[in-house]
Specification:
Layout (H helix, E strand, L loop, with lengths): L4 H20 L6 E6 L5 E6 H29 L9 H4 L2 H36 L9 H26 L4
Antiparallel strand pairs: 1-2
């Protein structure tokens, strides 16, 4: 089965962000400040290699689950799909297009999650450039606000697509 353009774009994004993490991690100190208090003060540390591996697994694993698990579960059985007017949208004449929309919509959100995680890593790199390591509270809150706005837009798109039967 040939992957869709959306799938290819998502996988390229994942590869680019993973490369970014591995490349930028070269500038990190041997012991990385990897956890920060609400005020931005470093309160957790780990060896650089452990940070890179664990963050890479997080960066790859969570978005992959978001991108592919919902579509996979929905294709197995409509019982796992929680959308308004489920019977209407999963009728045989609409099922394929509905599942395609859900799959593509999941990939969009997974891409947003990937970009947010890439941003968080960049903030960790920046925080480790100063002594003592300090994470910018304004930057993380700004990134989180943008992420939450993207989540609201994504949810609105899902709701608007399935709000009415017909």
């Amino acid at each position: 089965m040939k992957p869709s353009p959306g799938t290819l774009a998502f996988l390229v994004l994942q590869a680019v962000l993973t490369g970014f993490v591995w490349y930028s991690a070269q500038t990190l100190p041997p012991v990385v400040a990897s956890h920060f208090s609400a005020s931005g003060v470093a309160n957790g540390f780990m060896p650089r290699q452990a940070y890179v591996v664990s963050f890479s697994l997080l960066l790859i694993g969570i978005p992959l689950l978001i991108a592919f698990l919902p579509g996979s579960l929905a294709r197995r059985s409509g019982a796992h799909l929680n959308i308004p007017n489920r019977t209407y949208w999963l009728a045989p004449e609409r099922r394929d297009i509905t599942l395609s929309f859900i799959s593509n919509h999941g990939k969009w959100f997974a891409a947003v999650v990937s970009l947010f995680l890439g941003y968080v890593h960049w903030l960790v790199v920046q925080a480790n450039r100063v002594q003592p390591p300090t994470l910018s509270s304004a930057d993380i809150l700004g990134g989180l606000a943008i992420f939450l706005l993207a989540l609201v837009v994504w949810l609105a798109g899902l709701y608007l697509r399935f709000r009415k039967a017909g």
